[in-house]
Amino acid sequence: MVDAATGNGVAVGGPGHNSPPVLDVINLKKHFPVKKGVLRRTVGQVYAVDDVTFSIGEGETLGMVGESGCGKSTVARTVLRLIEPTDGSIRLDGHDVTRLGKTDMRPYRRQMQMIFQDPFSSLNPRMSAGDIVAEPLQVHDIAHGKEKAKLAAELFDQVGLRRSQMSAFPHEFSGGQRQRISIARALALNPKLIVADEPVSALDVSIQAQVINLMMDLQREKRLSYLFIAHDLAVVEHISHRIAVMYLGKIVEYADKKTLFTNPQHPYTEALLSAVPVPNPKLKREKRLLQGDVPSPINPPPGCAFHTRCPYAEARCKVDTPRLVEISPGHGVSCHLRVN
Question: 26, 158, 247, 271 - which has most CB atoms within 10 Å?
């Protein structure tokens, strides 16, 4: 979907594109106030997420990539209403949930769940694995007693854990097993959308593959929709149908994964892809090292936010802010050099 007013957006595309999107985010903004002094007066804003638009269809995975601090995790938490948006709208299955209160929001909590980056800190060390997985069933009054235990055991089966491990505590599991517990907990309420915030970055490479394949199997079985956030482009390419590239709180390019990896249009995307190792010592790839650091989100540069590090920057890049425009079906880019 492309917003007609701003030109921002990501085409729904991918699996489920004939049905309404499960998640529709329009012009999302999240600004954190900067306070100083004894009176804690607001002296500025951190523009963590600044006018982001995208949609995710049923059974589809949207990968979101970018450097640390670009706003990916803030997007994830804002979409789930774990932090409140400054502006914009969030529609879940066609229902606007942007401004709902806690009571009205409760039914929608069941439809969207999250898998966190650190599988150890996201699990209560004082609860057994079985109780952790079964807790959402009790909190949402879905099952109690023997029925709750039965459903929790079935969830253990689905994620490849033994039922005999339900009485064990988080410290007794490996990192990959703990992440499987997190996935089982996320599945407990039969959600439509799962937001995965770097779910495999803390795991060994061999375990990463197991967890990613498990998520893909569950997606095919249950028609789950994923917002998958990661730094590792190889992982994102493997699991995603479409990919959105973020820089300093904005989406600067989006496309299906094949197009993005074979025909990147934004200079920042080109730099990210050039840094990916190639498993062939005979194949030479041109390195495009970015100069300087990411600008501060408190005081972003005028014009194109990337112009301070872009090797192709022109005079207008320092003044005019480029819009995110679809240059071909399903492929959008925010760059003056690509959009006339």
Answer: 247
